[in-house]
Fold:
Amino acid sequence: MNFDFTLVGYILLVSLLLLAYGLIKKLFIDYRETVLNIKPETKTDVLPKNFSHSPDFSSVTKDGKTFYLSQSQRIFIEELYNACKNGSPGVGKDYLMERVGVSDNTRPQDLFKGDKDTWESLVRSPRQGIFELNI
Structure:
């Protein structure tokens, strides 16, 4: 049998190969998720079960300990939480302080003045000027 592949023939062949690839990929993903019980990671998977918060972040609970936050602390922690949830946990000082609405001279730690335990429990700094939720 002699095949004369023209442009139309190549297009049909490529289409069939792409269709087969799509079906095989779907079957593999279904097999992986149902039989092997392996689910794809989502960005929210980075959030541990030991951290929760009220709808307005007026209180947050970490490792069973509840912290009650001031308005500026709420904004600060919520920004860190959202960054963590989005898979990019590090947030710059300038951005955070702008969101809180305080001057550039204010240190983030000063938002938690008199509340050192809350600061140390909820916030960490992997490097100067960058802050993350300590979860």
Observations:
- The chain has two domains: 1-40, 44-133.
